[in-house]
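Render methylated-DNA--[protein]-cysteine S-methyltransferase in 3D.
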Amino acid sequence: MNANAPDQAYHFHVMRRAIDLIDQGGEALPLDRLAGEMGMSAAHFQRLFSAWVGVSPKRYQQYLTLGHAKTLLAQRFTTLEVADAAGLTGTGRLHDLFLRWEAMSPGEFARGGEGLTIYHGCFDSPFGETLAMGTDKGLCGLAFTEECGRDAAFDDLSARWADARFEPAPERIAPWVDAAFAGRGETALHMIGAPFQIKVWEALLRVPTGHVTTYSEIAQAIGRPRAVRAVGTAVGRNPVSFLIPCHRALRKSGALGGYHWGLPVKRAMLAWESARVDG
């Protein structure tokens, strides 16, 4: 991973503590108090956040509030009616980096990954430790371990392809992971799921950085308008978090909905992306 990755993980840990403090207080905290709670000077805390996310701690707190999701729905709601909006028939320019993807055939999926070798390793990311998995064709799993722990994340992902062979080999997938979080280069994805899930994940790939959509909008986009609950389940089963941006799917009410790797991580991702778009 790039040299700045450990700093990114450190920043996430600080931000994760900030989320808890903001939730406890119910309102934005003054810079001096927030910095003091983190055991930092106000100047250091200000520099840390500005370097990581590009905005001041005061502004970032606004993005972390629970009401931010409603603001996103009002101002940055994305319709998904145009199936080829992101060039999904081939390599497309998606959320600031090149993603090249290939879906496993239904027959291959039904065999539970039999005959497949999946490489895995843990990496630092802007959202804490990340467990990544990939085949020779691309990344097939990306989990965030801060809320659930490394072992639980591994068990969760590996159970999806129970008959695959898993091999610890972070060096095999590191270039794809590096490109994913650096926002440059090409990341290959190997999407392993049932046909319905693949359709839902393709729809998520059309939601631009800093924007959001709803579960019902996704259902409309894939031609299954009454399957909102099934869409929500498929969103939650997305194995390649962040790159297939399930964190950008909200409820119509503006509620965040669930997030497989923990709601604090989802809030952090939405805030981080919003700050970069606004900046």
